[in-house]
């Protein structure tokens, strides 16, 4: 899909003309400069350069691994080389996890190999593996309600059916709940191991990994995701009335290590103490190279900030790019991991000067909607932003941005509001957490549209005196779960 500016169309010309008086009420000069920054960003090659180098030089970057640490050091140098200031690396302790070797197979009657992947932070099987009969559940609630006698000593299998692809990714939540909490529920009922249909919308024979949760600071039971075709195979056998017995093996291990946040600033010209956070995460799962999740997010944010720096004039407020560490994995205690939480805690009183935060962590496909804090809907700022973003195919949304994302989310309960540039996630969960998450899946034209949308919006935010905190509703203590 081409993302040429649509201003040549009669519709766009009519919209811009109608919106111009409203934009001038915000600040005509700021809007015009945002448009210029947007247009220049469309031709920038920084985003593609960054994500190409990151995924080629370091490949997969599991949280706490040497590849994640080396990538962070390289990214800090990349920021410095592109004019960012106050570049620093913020380390924190982490329990790392290595997959090791693993296998899954039906044994005995109907014996056959299966394609599966161990879930993150699940423990190894005993030597020789776990062999047991399989008991299937079609919902998480059915597992919760099951009598322990029907589960004890067995391999619990949860199959919610195929995840539906949706533009906003809303089909993900019910499935990832099973991945995170399912092993703990099965373990409490005495299960020997846990398997589930992969959390993905594809039908490839590639399993989707992802993290499990610790329970009371302890790992649960060996846990695996089956690729979609293999999940179907197991479910069909059970539907035919066949007894299914399975053997699972895993040599996964945990180890003490550290992760880190990489932080770089483009200081504001007149109000540098006022900070706008542009977030993404550096770590990835080990099966692919983390291009979609989330090398692309870092590429988009650094390229957008660089487009503003290259515009010839600094905005009033500071732009802060953060590549967060350890977004993907759960941890035994709150004292380890979670780069977003580490950053928010370490800021202390300085967080009061964080005016707004946004996160890019949904791949590289096009942006289609702008979401702002409560109170901004219908404002002069939203109208100005619409003038800047509409030619890119980005519409203002009445949906309020409330949680920001996993990495910036911990700042929310501490008073920082969020903006969101919603991306088309229709194919995101075909690739997410699989071996298919590689550089070739990024469409350069859609990547450039993201950069242009971020750059144009950020100029408006950074060079304005809009008090987004005053628009923010009462805070909550909820933060989004890791994905």
Automatic annotation (TrEMBL):
**Where is this protein localized, as stated in its record?**
Endoplasmic reticulum; Golgi apparatus; Lysosome; Secreted
Q: Which domain of life is it from?
A: Bacteria
GO terms, molecular function: carboxypeptidase activity; metal ion binding; metallodipeptidase activity
Subunit organization: Homodimer. The monomeric form is inactive while the homodimer is active.
User: What keywords appear on the UniProt entry?
Assistant: Carboxypeptidase, Endoplasmic reticulum, Glycoprotein, Golgi apparatus, Hydrolase, Lysosome, Metal-binding, Metalloprotease, Protease, Secreted, Signal, Zinc, Zymogen
Q: What is the lineage of its organism?
A: Bacteria, Pseudomonadati, Pseudomonadota, Alphaproteobacteria, Caulobacterales
What residues does the Peptidase M28 domain cover?
Answer: 261-455
From which source organism is this entry? Brevundimonas mediterranea
The protein's name: Carboxypeptidase Q
Q: Note whether Glycosyltransferase occurs among the keywords.
A: no
Report the principal subcellular site: endoplasmic reticulum
The answer on whether this UniProt entry bears the keyword Protease reads yes
> Which Pfam families does the record cross-reference, listed alphabetically?
Peptidase_M28
Q: Which GO terms describe its biological process?
A: proteolysis
Indicate the secretion signal residues: 1-25
| InterPro entries linked to this entry | CPQ, Peptidase_M28
For this record, the Gene Ontology CC terms, alphabetical, are: extracellular region; lysosome
Do you know which PANTHER family this protein is assigned to?
CARBOXYPEPTIDASE Q, PROTEASE FAMILY M28 PLASMA GLUTAMATE CARBOXYPEPTIDASE-RELATED
